[in-house]
Amino acid sequence: MIKILNFIDGQFQEPVENQWLDNVSPASGEIYSQSPNSTASDIELAYQAAAKAFPAWSQTDINQRARVLSKIANLLEEGLEKFARAESKDNGKPINLAKTVDIPRAASNFRFFAQAITQFSSESHESVGQNAINYTLRKPLGVVACISPWNLPLYLFTWKIAPALAAGNCVIAKPSEVTPMTAFLLGEICQEAGLPKGVLNIVHGEGPVTGQALIEHADIKAISFTGGTATGVHIAKLAGAHLKKVSLELGGKNPNIIFADCDYEKMLDTTMRSSFANQGQICLCGSRILVEESIYEKFKTDFIARTKSLVIAHPDNEDADLGAIVSHAHMQKILSYIDLAKQGQGKILCGGKQVAIEGYENGYYLEPTVIEIDSIDCQLNQEEIFGPVVTIMPFSTEAEALQIANSTAYGLSASVWTNDLKRTMKFTQELQAGIVWVNTWMLRDLRTPFGGLKASGIGREGGLEALRFFTETKNVCIQY
Ligand code: NAD
């Protein structure tokens, strides 16, 4: 049985109170490792290590910081196969996805912020007529917390850690207890890359235990969190009481709006991915498909045929389109939404059932599911399911499409498929979403701001926005 350990002060350590969690491989349902359920004692050790490392790291030449972060990126790339296998086993995602998306993007996070910090600059303002010059300093905050979810484990973990470290902070990071493995392996790479002791501390455990102890720590200066909206609200309340800086990247229920004038084949290919990639467990998935009436029946026929042809298989299978759902509890949650359709909230057009994979009958596999709905108020249309389940419905006018698209509590992302410029401009202006894609989906450029409106979050990360979040701004005014 593999024992995952905390990484504190540059060393792997067992949890102080010796509490452990079972870690399950969703592809087989087997327990294959154990990870610490760390408590406030471990968080305190991590804090002491981080606080001790902060003066030196925050004063380290940015070129040296950049060199260490680039080395981590290189080592992640060299370890692609090992990391991808570990991610796929821990999360249930197809090995090909882990190899082509998760691990390369985790490496890119380090590479990007290694470069970005060398280009990070601040403003100066000459107060003409007053013989004064103002300039802005952006200083690292101190010890910060990074908390991430299970759906893109290493990718989202490093999305936070890389800018925090680049900006000169020391970090206590907690991966999801559901997928701790690649965060554990990252510790080894940090040692090899020569990241000084205590600069990054990785502490494992459950949200309400370890995560709670971390966000309650009085001396943590900022919390960067990605996860569910309910957890985000809880963190915001606690952070508010202590005036900690927070960045919250939360849930989504993203519309995918398809007009008849789009490039149909490209739209169909992309919609397959935006619906079911990573078993639909991506916050940016287009889980509400809205189709212009004139092509609705054709789209329905083609989309269902393509959905039925998707390969659901063990994640090691190179041909798998869908692997396993991350956990038994999450599969049950998804099935409970499918039940709502059976009870009358919608009509299941395809899928809806569990799948038994030969030799892995205890794994958590689900058919990709398409549900037709006729009311935008139903839970299927309003609540985040976060699985391989999409709803579809027709619309007749632009106004109606916009109204449906904006009708949920969320506002993370939206996709629009059209070749009409006027319509493009209208939708990009009026869609309530932090990210709008036109004729594409999940095309990411790390320089761009990332985050959501409404129940999808507060603040923006990505590019210079992340470096701004992880620094404190100070204005200096000198009169001469
Ligand atoms: P979650 O909120 O249950 O957990 C996220 C992280 O928070 C985990 O590490 C968990 O241990 C921790 N946590 C839970 N309770 C805590 C507490 N009281 N104090 C501190 N930490 C605590 O979310 P999840 O189920 O892991 O992830 C799925 C959710 O994440 C979905 O809603 C999805 O949309 C969202 N998500 C959002 C984005 C984005 O960029 N907006 C990206 C990926 C996932």
What ions, cofactors and ligands are bound?
nicotinamide-adenine-dinucleotide
> What is the structural class?
alpha/beta
> Mean pLDDT, rounded to whole units?
98
Give the N-to-C terminal Cα separation: 68 Å
Main beta sheet strand tally, sense and closure: 7 strands, mixed
Helix content: 40-55%
Q: What is the total tally of β strands?
A: 25
Shape, please?
Answer: globular
Q: Strand-residue fraction?
A: 15-25%
Instruction: Please list the strands of the largest sheet in the order they lie side by side.
Output: 15-18-19-14-13-21-22
- Total count of helical runs of at least 4 residues: 15
Uncertain segments are none
Radius of gyration: 23 Å
